[in-house]
Amino acid sequence: MSALRVLIVDDEAPARSRLRRLLDGFVEDGRIEAPVEAADGVEALERLAEAERPFDLAFLDVRMPEVDGFDVVERVAAERRPDVVFTTAYDEYALRAFRANATDYLLKPIDAERLEEALARVEDRRGDSEERDERLAALLDTLDEQAAAPPPDGDTGPPIERFTVQGVDRLVVVSAGDVIAAEVSDGITNLYVRQEGREGGAGIGRHLVGFTLDALEARLDPARFMRVHRSALVNLTCVREMVPWFSGRYKIVLTGGHEVTASRSRSRELRDRLSL
């Protein structure tokens, strides 16, 4: 296999420099060409579109101003789209990265061993893209099967007490009682749950899940959970404060300090349900 053409995209110069240093060994081994850099998503799109030879691999930072890593993937022409390895300091983008057909997902600070694994995956993908796509399809099928969709004929059955969500490399069992809230952002459902901290204190964990709010709401106990906005579902037992907000709305403060703003109509219903 010929050396891969690589593009490094990150709006932070130190991050680009660190990744370039980590890649130096692969340049010396002849596995990749000397990387090209882009300081933001806009520059990345220009380089991807104007390169004489299409890039084989792009290391894309997720969070960038104006045009983020996911925007770059969506906007680049299909014939110019390289294999993508997302890089980020945040772990909540894993599911979205897989849905964007990313080859891998690296957390900053990037570890040399994980970088080697990511490059090997790209090389494997280019050697047998069909097999890799089948593995990705299988993963997404697994995620979709987790959707807590109502059974046929409108019979949702008894409320669920426990269910699984997809972690980065494992299935995580979540107790329904530990769910604080669920919110949709950019088409992705974010699940917020109570979890024990390393020193025994309570904290909040977040999971990206493959099911919709409608499906989740249909399977949770309606006496305990309420849809307070078309994009937000909360556990009523976790409500700690209701702060008057604009236009008759309430900002809801939940366990752990998590905040959700209710719509105006749902604010009235919420107030009634909590007998305020």
From TrEMBL:
Keywords: DNA-binding, Phosphoprotein
UniProt xrefs under PROSITE patterns: HTH_LYTTR, RESPONSE_REGULATORY
Residue numbers of 4-aspartylphosphate PTMs: D61
Classification via InterPro entries: CheY-like_superfamily, LytR-like, LytTR_DNA-bd_dom, Sig_transdc_resp-reg_receiver
Superkingdom classification of source: Bacteria
GO terms for MF: DNA binding
Domain Response regulatory as annotated: residue spans: 5-123
Domain HTH LytTR-type, residue spans: 163-276
PANTHER family: STAGE 0 SPORULATION PROTEIN A HOMOLOG, TRANSCRIPTIONAL REGULATOR-RELATED
The protein, known as: LytTR family DNA-binding domain-containing protein
Species in which this protein is naturally found: Rubrivirga litoralis
Biological classification of the source: Bacteria, Pseudomonadati, Rhodothermota, Rhodothermia, Rhodothermales
